[in-house]
């Protein structure tokens, strides 16, 4: 057998530039020759271990104070390996879905100047490569790399994670490591062990199917083939691509096209139930100073996908509805006089259009030309709606097996969690599943008191893209609120930093700072207000209700005028808008429509924009309560 097979190999997370948790015993593991004895040296001290019959080894190093950089040397009969630039500090596990995974690159409208020249070698991130496995837990994650904060690297950092790490380093001056395991669109079930899933019940059939060889691969391939066939059919039948003058061309005579005022979704128009391709065109007049210059075309967000052309040349393409469209226009394309912008919109399901409230502009030569207003449009071709795709990260245990299970042995200062949007279809189960996740991860990492700091869902208009129950997100928020019953947890309330028309609000900094307040208090014992006002109890006062809160030391405030989004009901359970008044650390609520109130709720909508009950700068959590 080739001796090369017995190279000393640490687990993929132990690479150059890694950050290890301070002040706790450290566990490292990996592969070597079966039975090989290893010496591991760090900061002048040595530890020893021996590989088992399969070549797996694990070693425990004594607790280390914060510092670095250091070299960690692993030496055995088969050779020597040096892991360089090792830091000792605080390591945080980042979990959840797209709002945790959302990178700094996706927030540059807010933070471009702040991160333009940022450098900090003491803040580092390891992005666990996205993977799934439904056959059982893996021993190792896929290979990755630790990256330190530089102007280039920071663009790939989790935005929430970066701002949390920045605050943590500024406060405690210790290295900060971020281990990012979030996957966009993932359901909470995907992050639970199979044992936990089986205990939860209701997943037996899907778990059995996923274990069948080739089942998932066949399903994904068939759906991919269906989607590609759908697109090929559109390309073949699209009138905008068939004539002598394509509809992307500035030479096209579009005088016979209809007009529509944009931005808007096409609800209430003849395009409301249309699926297929719609072309939109608009002309922009430019002067000589703008001609030939580079430019930036901002087209907000488009449902569902788009191709964009300027003067017949494609400048951008986006394949799904959520990202903000920011298309670079190369030098030499724009000209003095008339320029044509053409947008080929693919509507796969629900209603298409341009999302309102976003920026639509051509930015060139220091000038921003507003593109809202009248656009011309014509249908390229119609089609049947495209069914939604199956996603591996929707299924139970797949992400846990491939991305969490292999990290067993790592020690973390705490977990930051931002997830729940993808479970709004079944909010009634979320509290139990989230509680099970916390319990499972603590057991897995052998940290019974591992702190969990999580984000309550922001405000978001779920009916914007599709018809939806306007209380689904409210129910998820309630489940998250109730999860605070689990010890060593804290929740950031975020109703004031969401964007009702965007699933991915850019303001991740305020959220990160709220989570860091919790860390300062619960981990480091600082006397800082960290928890938003939470409803504690209510009492009847004649025809009004008196509400009491925790987290309201120093008093409650009504930010920006009279309190909004309070409702009360009688014994019939029908809620009516109510007046509400802050009185010290309580709120008095009443309504002439409900002379004998029996229940109250606050901000009980998916998008309670403008909810304004605060204390110590923190917004109150939505809630409902009854006598």
Describe the protein's topology.
Layout: E1 9-10, E2 19-21, E3 26-31, E4 37-42, E5 45-50, E6 56-61, E7 67-76, E8 79-96, H1 98-101, H2 108-115, E9 120-127, E10 146-149, H3 159-172, E11 176-180, H4 194-200, H5 204-210, H6 215-237, E12 258-262, E13 276-286, E14 295-299, E15 302-303, E16 305-310, E17 313-318, E18 326-329, E19 337-347, E20 353-354, E21 360-364, E22 367-370, E23 373-382, H7 398-404, E24 414-418, H8 430-444, E25 452-455, H9 472-482, E26 489-492, H10 509-522, E27 534-541, E28 544-550, E29 557-558, E30 566-569, E31 575-577, E32 579-583, E33 586-590, E34 599-602, E35 613-615, E36 618-619, E37 623-626
Parallel strand pairs: 2-8, 8-11, 8-24, 9-11, 24-25, 25-26
Antiparallel strand pairs: 1-3, 3-6, 4-5, 4-7, 7-8, 9-10, 12-23, 13-19, 13-23, 14-18, 14-21, 15-20, 16-17, 16-19, 21-22, 27-28, 28-33, 29-35, 30-31, 30-34, 32-33, 34-37, 35-36
Write up what this structure looks like:
- With 627 residues, this protein is an alpha+beta fold.
- Among the domains are: 243-382, Galactose-binding domain-like (Jelly Rolls, Sandwich), CATH 2.60.120; 534-626.
- The protein is built from ten helices and 37 strands.
- Strands 2, 4, 5, 7, 8, 9, 10, 11, 24, 25 and 26 form an eleven-stranded mixed sheet that branches.
- A hairpin with a 2-residue loop joins β21 and β22 (367-370).
- α3 (159-172) crosses α10 (509-522) and α8 (430-444) packs across α9 (472-482).
- The model has no long low-confidence stretch (mean pLDDT 96).
């Amino acid at each position: 057998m080739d001796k090369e097979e017995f190279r000393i190999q640490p687990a993929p997370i132990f690479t150059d530039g890694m950050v290890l948790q301070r002040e706790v015993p450290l566990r490292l593991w990996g592969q070597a020759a079966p039975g090989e004895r290893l010496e591991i040296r760090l900061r002048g001290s040595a530890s020893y271990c021996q590989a088992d019959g399969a070549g797996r080894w694990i070693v425990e190093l004594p607790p280390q104070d914060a510092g670095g950089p250091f070299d960690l040397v692993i030496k055995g009969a088969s050779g020597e390996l040096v892991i360089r630039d090792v830091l000792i500090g605080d390591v945080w596990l980042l979990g959840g879905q797209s709002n945790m995974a959302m990178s700094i690159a996706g927030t540059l409208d807010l933070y471009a100047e702040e991160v333009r020249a940022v450098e900090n070698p003491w803040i580092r991130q390891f992005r666990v490569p996205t993977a799934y496995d439904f056959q059982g837990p893996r021993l190792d994650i896929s290979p990755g790399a630790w990256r330190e904060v530089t102007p280039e690297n920071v663009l790939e950092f989790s935005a929430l994670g970066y701002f949390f790490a920045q605050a943590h380093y500024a406060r405690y001056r210790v290295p900060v490591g971020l281990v990012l395991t979030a996957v966009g669109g993932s359901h909470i079930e995907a992050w639970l062990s199979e044992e936990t899933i089986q205990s939860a019940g209701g997943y037996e059939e899907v778990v059995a199917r996923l274990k069948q060889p080739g089942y998932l691969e066949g399903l994904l391939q068939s759906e991919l083939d269906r989607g590609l066939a759908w697109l090929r059919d559109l390309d073949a039948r699209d009138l905008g691509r068939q004539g002598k003058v394509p509809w992307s061309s500035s030479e096209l005579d579009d005088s016979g096209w209809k007009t529509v005022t944009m931005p808007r979704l096409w609800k209430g128009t003849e395009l409301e139930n249309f699926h297929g391709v719609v072309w939109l065109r608009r002309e922009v007049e430019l002067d000589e100073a703008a001609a030939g210059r580079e430019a930036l075309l901002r087209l907000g967000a488009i449902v569902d996908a788009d191709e964009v052309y300027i003067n017949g040349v494609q400048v951008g393409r986006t394949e799904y509805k959520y990202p903000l469209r920011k298309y670079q226009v190369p030098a030499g394309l724009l000209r003095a006089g008339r320029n044509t912008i053409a947008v080929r919109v693919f509507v796969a399901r629900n209603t298409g259009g341009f999302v309102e409230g976003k920026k639509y502009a051509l930015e060139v030569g220091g000038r921003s030309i507003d593109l809202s207003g009248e656009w011309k449009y014509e249908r390229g071709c119609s089609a049947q709606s495209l069914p939604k795709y199956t996603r591996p990260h929707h299924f139970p245990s797949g992400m846990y097996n491939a991305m969490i299970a292999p990290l067993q042995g790592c020690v973390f200062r705490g977990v930051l969690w931002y997830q729940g949007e993808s479970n709004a279809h079944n909010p009634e189960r979320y509290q139990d599943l989230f509680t099970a996740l916390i319990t499972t991860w603590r057991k897995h990492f052998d940290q019974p008191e591992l702190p969990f700091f999580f984000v309550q869902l922001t405000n978001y208009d779920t009916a914007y893209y599709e018809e939806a129950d306007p209380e689904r997100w409210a129910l998820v928020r309630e489940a998250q609120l109730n999860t605070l019953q689990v010890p060593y947890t804290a929740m950031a309330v975020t109703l004031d930093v969401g964007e009702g028309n965007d699933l991915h609000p850019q303001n991740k900094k305020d959220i990160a700072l709220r989570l860091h307040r919790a860390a300062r208090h619960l981990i480091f014992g600082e006397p800082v207000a960290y928890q938003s006002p939470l409803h504690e109890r209510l009492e009847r006062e004649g025809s009004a209700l008196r509400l009491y809160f925790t987290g309201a030391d120093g008093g409650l405030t009504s930010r920006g005028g009279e309190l909004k989004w309070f409702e009360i009901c009688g014994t019939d359970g029908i809620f009516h808008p109510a007046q509400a008044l802050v009185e010290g650390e309580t709120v008095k609520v009443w309504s002439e429509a409900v002379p004998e109130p029996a229940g109250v709720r606050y901000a009980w909508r998916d998008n309670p924009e403008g909810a304004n009950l605060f204390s110590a700068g923190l917004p109150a959590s939505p809630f409902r309560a009854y006598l």
